[in-house]
């Protein structure tokens, strides 16, 4: 019965978090689904991603603090509390990352017109991948812990180098989400968003353990 209760609590939490995540990210997602897949729309794509940062942060917060007791489950309340507590802190690291990614993506999609050499193209791809992985680390850290934005940025970079398994796991999750988006649509990738968050927390567990052991009193 205990195992069944825990599983039921997990399913309920993930369902509620999924719904609230979609609602919180809806302002950007609605516009995103209406945009044509054109390189000239890259700045708009990035702008549509702004609400995803706070929404993902609230989802991370809610899933991380989920309980197993069906009589004491409040995932909606926890999600909203996480959103309220983390929205400003997350935007301080999420917005700069989006700006850098926008510049890189514009260069990548216009590489032919700009005459970008092949080696420079792949350098930009690597740089964009690093920024994306850094931003995921930063969102997780700022969602679960109270640090200054500069400290979040340094910790996110530090763990990219010192916890390569976390970076590798995160890259796998992002590639899976990207593959679903390419093969299906942007809307379909939202369906397992809460499962993605739960998997991300599992991948980031070593990083979180290090932070709690070394940097949290």
Descriptive key words:
10 helices; single chain; mainly alpha; 217 residues
Number of strands: 0
Span between termini: 36 Å
How many domains is the backbone divided into?
A: 1
Q: Evaluate the radius of gyration.
A: 18 Å
Structural class by sheet pairing and helices: mainly alpha
Tell me about the largest β-sheet: none
Low-confidence stretches: none
The number of helical segments is: 10
Apparent shape: globular
Mean pLDDT: 85
Helix content class: over 70%
Beta-strand level of the residues, as a percent range? under 5%
Q: Return the string of H and E elements.
A: HHHHHHHHHH
Describe it for me?
The protein has one domain. The chain is 80% helix and 0% strand. The chain contains ten helices and no strands. Helix 1 packs across helix 9 and helix 2 runs antiparallel to helix 4 (75-109). The longest helix is centred in the middle third of the chain and has 35 residues, at 75-109. The chain is globular. The N and C termini lie far apart (36 Å). The mean pLDDT is 85.
Can I get a quick summary?
The protein has helices at residues 2-34, 42-48, 52-64, 75-109, 111-114, 118-144, 149-162, 164-183, 193-203, 205-214. The termini are far apart. It has one domain (2-214).
